[in-house]
Write a structure and sequence with these properties.
- The chain has 100 residues and is α+β, with helices and mostly antiparallel strands.
- Helices cover 31% and strands 24% of the residues.
- It contains three helices and four strands, in the order βαβαββα.
- Strands 2-1-3-4 form a four-stranded mixed sheet.
- The protein is globular and about 35 Å long.
């Protein structure tokens, strides 16, 4: 199985940032098992990283590995949207639902 590297850009220690962290972690745990690395980057603490990656809004998730690089911006509560946007659909999800 592939190893996934995801970077989550947030702004400060806000409720919105915490929610994004929790939502992405839950998605990773349920869909990628232990085959992922999640890096949280606070753009207030590391503005140069955000500028280098051209992050204009938070939360933003960047899937760096495996290629191709994918991004999704905004609310992470719609799991299907996140999975499709980051190209994370695994073999257990076909047509937007778990097989019976």
């Amino acid at each position: 199985m592939n190893r996934y590297v995801l970077k989550l850009y947030v702004t400060g220690q806000t409720a919105r940032s915490q929610r994004a962290i929790e939502q992405l972690k839950a998605i990773c745990e349920s869909e990628l098992n232990q085959h992922y690395e999640m890096v949280v980057i606070d753009v207030l603490e590391r503005p140069q990283l955000a500028e280098d990656e051209r992050i204009l809004a938070t939360p933003t998730v960047v899937k760096e590995l495996p290629p191709p690089i994918r991004r999704i911006i905004g609310d992470l509560s719609d799991i299907e949207r996140v999975l499709l946007g980051l190209d994370l659909l695994t073999h257990t999800r076909v047509g937007g639902h778990d097989p019976a």
